[in-house]
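Hi R.,

Here's the input for the nicotinamide-adenine-dinucleotide complex you asked about:
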Amino acid sequence: MGVFDRQTGHEQVVFCQDAATGLQAIVAVYSTALGPSLGGTRFHPYRSEDEALPDALNLSRAMAYKAACAGLDLGGGKGVIVGDPRIDKTEALLESYGRFVQALGGRYITACDVGTYVEDMDVVARECAFVTGRSPAAGGAGDSSILTAYGVFQGMRAAAEAVWGSPTLAGRRVGVSGVGKVGRRLVGHLLADGASVVVADVSAEAVGRVRAEHREVEAVDVDALPGLALDVLSPCALGGALDDRTVPALQARVVCGGANNQLAEPGVEKLLEDRGILYAPDYVVNAGGLIQVAEEIGGYSEARARARATGILDTTRKVLRLAAEEGVPPAVAADRLAERRIAEASARAGGRILPAGGPRPARP
Ligand SMILES: NC(=O)c1ccc[n+]([C@@H]2O[C@H](COP(=O)([O-])OP(=O)(O)OC[C@H]3O[C@@H](n4cnc5c(N)ncnc54)[C@H](O)[C@@H]3O)[C@@H](O)[C@H]2O)c1
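And here is the predicted structure with nicotinamide-adenine-dinucleotide in place:
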């Protein structure tokens, strides 16, 4: 099925091909109503164009919603490069990709995603002025998981306030599923706030690392964690953690974590609500990473980025309040908040898209 037939509402979808370097990429711009579309580039061995296109479309729309909810003046975009990053990623290919992104004239700004890293963004930036997620040596902010974990903690405080009346996890038992870059840092925030923490990870090494840092942390099997007597479950591994098999087993009153796309399918948000479980929407609470790269656009200030990530506390409160007022699950309320902000900006702009323009690349 083609782009038009899908009726996803995307503003622009660009197919990029360069035989000399083997580059095959798709850049999807969902909206520029609020500003340039920002979103990472995923480098993945898609089996076909039919697999890559929906990923670019879905991920760019999700970025637009995340930015809109976070109060950022940015639209949503995403790049996907078809190939195995371990085999196909070359400097020449990344430079070629940079030329295509540059050709969009700032309507799309790229960053890291699965399969791309800060050093790759430094290569893309040789040919392109519209790159974030760069190394600190190149003026970037570096590892985005620091602010992501901090933001998730703020969102969790808002959820705790809604359920138990106070924005703290002190005295609560929190289960963190996945203790990689984000989960491990979240554990530190939780312990500092006075929570007790149980972790689970498919990687024994990841569990070992977190327990070496914090001896008081308990570890259990991945499959055992959701069914434990927890106050909060925090999915911080891959997407799809919440489905019609896991939700009925939950004992936690709150689900709030860093993983993207936690709801495995539509309807799970209702399942959670019916069980009296407060679900803090993933893209609302994990916006810290996006906030970090967005701050790079005007010259990175860690203090400013952290202050904005602190705002995830209030944003989550706002989403939960809207959910209560409109009688819908928080995930639906977050979507409504984002859609309204994008629609208002689009109306203000008279429906006009953002024109190309902006600085020239460092290397002409
Ligand atoms: N890093 C960021 O800035 C950022 C920003 C927004 C969202 N996210 C999302 O947060 C999640 C974690 O990101 P990360 O950067 O920490 O990744 P990571 O790869 O560093 O960590 C993921 C961890 O999850 C573990 N894991 C994998 N499958 C698991 C399973 N079934 N059960 C339990 N553990 C499992 C892995 O072993 C690993 O330790 C991802 O969904 C990512 O998309 C990350």
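One thing worth noting: The two ends are 38 Å apart (CA to CA).

Cheers,
M.
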